[in-house]
């Protein structure tokens, strides 16, 4: 699902909101989440999951072209940990990789 898919789905579900209002609401929410993570805060959405910041310490890497060692600086990266309800919901749902009415390649008898 993309951001525009989310906006479209919310606009359809809540008819009293215009598409523009829905787009603004999604942008505001995502911006607030990004800002909170940038400030080092943890975000917890009950039943969905939590977002936090993980620290990757500095390490020595290697330039693949020259083979020379390079110091890779410390990084702070966002991390998502799904909640129990989300894990269980995903586990129960079938994957939509294959269409349900897929024609069989076996010859009919």
From TrEMBL:
What spans are recorded as compositionally biased (Basic and acidic residues)? 87-100
What is this protein identified as? Integration host factor subunit beta
Q: Where is this region: Disordered?
A: 87-109
Please give an example of a GO cellular component term from this record. cytosol
Q: Which GO terms describe its molecular function?
A: DNA binding; structural constituent of chromatin
Gene3D superfamilies named among the record's database cross-references: IHF-like DNA-binding proteins
Q: Could you give the subunit structure recorded for this chain?
A: Heterodimer of an alpha and a beta chain.
Described function: This protein is one of the two subunits of integration host factor, a specific DNA-binding protein that functions in genetic recombination as well as in transcriptional and translational control.
Q: What is the source species? A: Caldimonas caldifontis
Q: Which family does the similarity line name?
A: Belongs to the bacterial histone-like protein family.
């Amino acid at each position: 699902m993309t951001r525009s898919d989310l906006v479209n789905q919310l606009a359809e579900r809540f008819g009293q909101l215009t598409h523009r209002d829905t787009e603004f609401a999604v942008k505001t929410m995502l911006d607030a989440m990004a800002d909170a993570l940038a400030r080092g805060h943890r975000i917890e959405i009950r039943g969905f999951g939590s977002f936090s910041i993980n620290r990757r310490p500095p390490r020595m890497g290697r330039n693949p072209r020259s083979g020379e060692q390079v110091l890779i600086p410390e990084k702070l990266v966002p991390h998502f940990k799904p909640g129990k309800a989300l894990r269980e919901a995903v586990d129960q749902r079938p994957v939509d990789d294959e269409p349900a009415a897929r024609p069989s390649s076996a010859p009919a008898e």
